[in-house]
Amino acid sequence: MHVQSELMTERLSEDERLAIAAYAARASWPEGFQIYERGAAADGVFVVLNGCVVLRSRVRAGRGFVPWVATVGETFGAEGLANGAVYATDARADEETETLYLSTTKLRAFVREQPSQALSLISQVMSERVALLEKLRELTTLSVEQRLLASLRRMGSHVGFLDANGRIELSASRYRLLCELVGATRESVSLVLGRLTGEGLAERVGSTLYVQPSQRLFDRLSGGSGARLLTQSLGQALGETSALPAELQ
Description:
The protein is an alpha+beta fold. The chain folds into two domains: about 5-135, Sandwich (Jelly Rolls); about 140-249, Arc Repressor Mutant, subunit A (Orthogonal Bundle), CATH 1.10.10. Helix content is about 40%, strand content about 20%. The chain has helices at about 15-20, 105-115, 115-140, 145-155, 170-180, 185-200, 215-220, 225-240; strands at about 25-30, 35, 45-50, 55-60, 65-70, 75, 90-95, 95-100, 170, 200-205, 210. The strands form three sheets. It has a four-stranded antiparallel sheet. The protein has a four-stranded antiparallel sheet with strand order 2-7-4-5. It starts with 13 loop residues before the first helix and ends in an 11-residue tail after the last helix.
């Protein structure tokens, strides 16, 4: 059973995005374009109209951690709403992407002239803050498999990660992104995906792995006996039962 509709997080509606567009600057970004870098002066907030933006923290040379992927109707760069703010991550267009940029000056006008729509934007930013807090809980309390399933559920809610059959398509670049979302090594992620493939929950075709978002797959997040056994075996084999992933320690 395809469960994409169950996985959608709160997002700004088309009408809300249109209201914001009257005050914001619109921009298009080619795939791979870096929109801003960590440490740069920040101002305002971005809203995604099309495509998606990956926020990445560089952990070590050649390695990164992805706390958030902003998709259609979601925001990024909201740290720019604070006084004297700087960006906390790098932001890169993961595919051809279109955004709105609302500076703090324009935001004040938006709040003054369209208060109900402005409250929707503020609510969206706060709901994403809750999602980031939940991500922190996952990193400190869940096993590699559970974090991987949570990341797949997130990817399954965005059409850009799906093929024509509604399966999550993990090419080489998407595989790397999944590892960064999970906060685990490629070896750890490969071990879990290998188990899912053996159980018929994933399929490898050439160099690409496909995962069908399904109730059977995401039920494992509830901590059934199978998930507990896998958590124990992963912990013994990989030594990853500590509070934080090795990459983040």
